[in-house]
Amino acid sequence: MSYGHRADSGAEGWIAASAFEQPRLQQPFELPPGVWARFAPLDWDRGRRLSAYAAYRASGA
Asked: How far is CA 3 from CA 19, 32, 44, 47, 57, in A?
């Protein structure tokens, strides 16, 4: 999701938000099934990000 705006005065900016979730990551190496079962509840990744930008450029320059 994002929103941006550019004004006639030369000001501009944007803001963006994003998120992801990835269940059941691929094992980087083989583990015995009993060992992997202990780590299975931790077998996921997720992230959230909020980015923003703002600038002012004087017109007529």
From this structure: 16, 48, 30, 20, 19
Q: What is the DSSP letter of 29?
A: S
Q: Identify whether the C-beta of residue 13 lies closer than 8 Å to the C-beta of residue 5.
A: yes
pLDDT in tens, 7-52: 988 899 999 999 999 887 777 788 887 887 887 787 788 899 999 9
How many residues are there in the chain?
61
Report d(CA 14, CA 3) in Å as an integer: 6
* 0.70 surpassed by pTM: no
